[in-house]
Amino acid sequence: xxxxLPIVDHPSAAREFVTNEPRSHWHDDSLWFVRSKRDxxxxxxxxxxxxxxxxxxxxxxxxAKLPEYLQQFEANATRLGAVVHWAADAEEHNRIVLDLLRRxxxxxxxxxxxxxxxxxxxxxxxxxxxIEVVDTDLGERIVQxxxxxxxxxxxxxxxxxxxxxxxxxxKYLGTRAGESDPQxxxxxxxxxxxxxxxSGEVGITGVNFAIADTGGLVVCxxxxxxxLGVSLPRIHIACMGIEKLVPRFQDLSVFTRLLARSxxxxxxxxxxSHFHGPRDENSELHIVxxxxxxxxxxxxxxxxxxxxxxxxxxxxxxxxxxxRSGGHSYRATVPGPIGSVLGPAKNAKAHKSLPFACSLCGSxxxxxxxxxxxxxxxxxxxxxxxxxxxxxxxxxxAMKAASFxxxxxxxxxxxxxxxxxSLKVLPKxxxxxxxxxxxxxxxxxxxxxxxxxxxYAKNRPSGSETISxxxxx
Amino acid sequence: MSETxxxxxxxxLDRLKGCVVDAPELPTIDPARVIQFEDxxxxxxxxxxxxxxxxxxVNTPSEIREKLQTIEVFQSARRIASTVPDAxxxxxxxxxxxxxxALSTLDWTIVRGEFGVAENGAIWIDGxxxxxxxMIFIAQYLAIVISRSDLLNNMHExxxxxxxxxxxxxxxxxxxxxxxxxxxxLVLGAHGCRKLQVFLLP
Lengths: 473, 202
Prior knowledge:
The structure holds two protein chains of two kinds. Chain A is α/β, with parallel strands linked by helices. Chain A has 23 helices and ten strands. Chain A is globular and about 90 Å long. Chain B is of the alpha/beta class. A five-stranded parallel sheet of chain B has the order 1-11-6-3-2. Chain B has a four-stranded mixed sheet with strand order 7-4-5-8. A two-stranded antiparallel sheet of chain B has the order 9-10. In chain B, strand 9 and strand 10 (187-188) form a beta hairpin. The relative contact order of chain B is 0.18. The mean pLDDT of chain B is 95. The interface between A and B is large, with 93 and 77 residues.
């Protein structure tokens, strides 16, 4: 499946979105609004940095001891009456879920938001096999009705305007043509999805946290859709990546304090549900543990910390590239900074342009609640991609040329001189022509009168060209 | 369990064990470093309001009934589930219901919460107190009754108070069901309760 992925060229995939300036600005503002709410929440907690520190250490510890904790979780969950399944990859995950549905003659399922099932392409797989799949998160339902995918991991429909939601609902839910009031549209979705909840035969959810020492799992939503989805039918299938574990029940205190504050700027999600075993003796709880490339990431010292991710989306909300180019431009289940780290880990060739969709401003690293050094990892990916010769030839040549220049002091001085003179004499029409897109919104700097070398020679008293030892220390 | 599943189990565990990683020690949260509030009651009420809930200070269960009767959608409610009968008499007998789907037409649910958390307005509901877990999610309106003496500062105290969870279900509820999926406009009452009333007894 992964081998046939088309190669994503982020700049061209983003072109349509960024050239629609009003839309790009609107998107930028929407996400900045969420980022500002996050800041307000983070600043209201004096121990915020302490919490991030703890979260990071807990996650580093868990990922290091992952095989032990997975077995502990399995033993405890089984003791509580849950059935634990293991899937090495996406295909096996999908097969396990379909198998469970077939064994129970299921035709209709209700699903709450799960980026893992998106990653595995579960919806398409089940639909191809004749199962009705209803995404119940409002944002996910909107993108599902429109035949799209989520453009953000927490705010799936952040790229869609209310008028467009109105059109979609008019077409599928029979709301009045031209209706765009979010209150009215949400009410229509509530009515529509109530019916789906009541007819759902199996509830499928993702997992925010699984607890090794109790065998329980935690699902967080604001809408209550996960709870409605699993407390009506007899069977609950919970799908999770193997990295979702925390060692102890009390560790949840750290993560429930960080997650919603980082994600949407709420002090906690409206519903934080803890499941320990199936509902009753007539019910079933199935937990599918999925690797799908995670153990490979764990092998890498450089990228291991990306497994700490709790999928809050804060890095996306703050990323200047994501905000302007939209989530779909990444052509990846998880977009934005964390997606640009995880994407190439899955398939370096297909996602090779993503680590370059970044200005290395470091804002993602600053907001990450589990302290993943995101911009360092993006830079590290560039190094890996250059090593794998997966970077465009013009970029590679430019780098080689720069390296040659910096290694030759005479050539460097000559180039500097040439640059200063050209800046002074070249007419603007030559530098700012339609072929030079760089210069579209930029001006060239005023050329300095002299180089640093020349200034140094002039301003340094003779006999002290070399810095003395005392001065250096 | 089928054979393919168990072989994948071995494959995944072998892969993980093949790479030995040094683990930092698990930290313990220092209670002196986490937020405390001088007035937990005030903080809880303020935070609850900020997440869309409504707090009411009451002294007796009958005051709860009086307060509720001033709410229009309670006056018109026909199907009421209540696990706090000294406050509100239920009109739906939960003991006679086998299939949770039968609760789809619930207008109101009134339940007890174990404790509240001042930092985020969340209330812990123990699934053991609910004859049907769906009753708190499917009702149009929800009211939770807790004691003012059961207000904690933060989530660290909350998880310490739960201790070791029993088999079953438990949920932190913070405000009514809500969504902002359409252009970031906050709408209360996405799928679950449209409003949340919290009654604080002494």
